[in-house]
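User: Structure with 2'-deoxyguanosine-5'-diphosphate, tokens only please.
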Amino acid sequence: MERSRALEIVEKQLTEKRYTHTLGVSEAAVELAGRYGADIYKAELAAIFHDYAKFRPKEEMKQILIDEREDERLLTFHHELWHAPAGAVLVRKEAGIEDEDILSAIRWHTTGKPGMTLLEKIIYLADYIEPGRAFPGVEEVRAIAKQSLNAAVLAAVKNSILFLMSKKQPVFPVTMDTYNDLIQNGDDV
Ligand code: DGI
Ligand code: FE
Ligand code: FE
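Assistant:
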């Protein structure tokens, strides 16, 4: 699919602010794909579609998770976690994207997962460091991203977990699994 067509589809699903974020993720993902040798076309499309389901009604996302037999633990955690797996399903159904690499990068962009592929890491990280992000610690992660992809993903996961803990928010087990996997198996962290 052409970049312009993908953007046209996604723009209709998002607020202006979220669309600007999406353009930022796309820019960051293309840069990371160039640096770390991923497929630039797939990185760009996955980035463009990563938040496709962000504004879907909670009930619709919940039904998708049930119908598609997604991880049932998701239902007992914050609904913010639902737009990633629901998005992968909807992007296939509604936008006709069939590429499994792209769909899985969308699916895992919020929690990460153990054994992430290159593209999954790039989308996870691009979402965190895109130029519009301004939270504490982002500059450090941007700097690490120029040296080591695994170290940067680890720093982003760690910051996210610490942030959730500081707010007394529950941490989804898969987010913890991602952290443990990078600590135990990630080269160059
Ligand atoms: O969709 P974005 O805002 O661009 O970013 P995202 O998809 O990475 O994260 C969406 C939200 O999910 C964000 O507010 C933080 C939250 N989140 C991420 N990991 C976890 C989490 N919330 C809980 N409860 N547990 C997690 O492990
Ligand atoms: Fe998201
Ligand atoms: Fe995002």
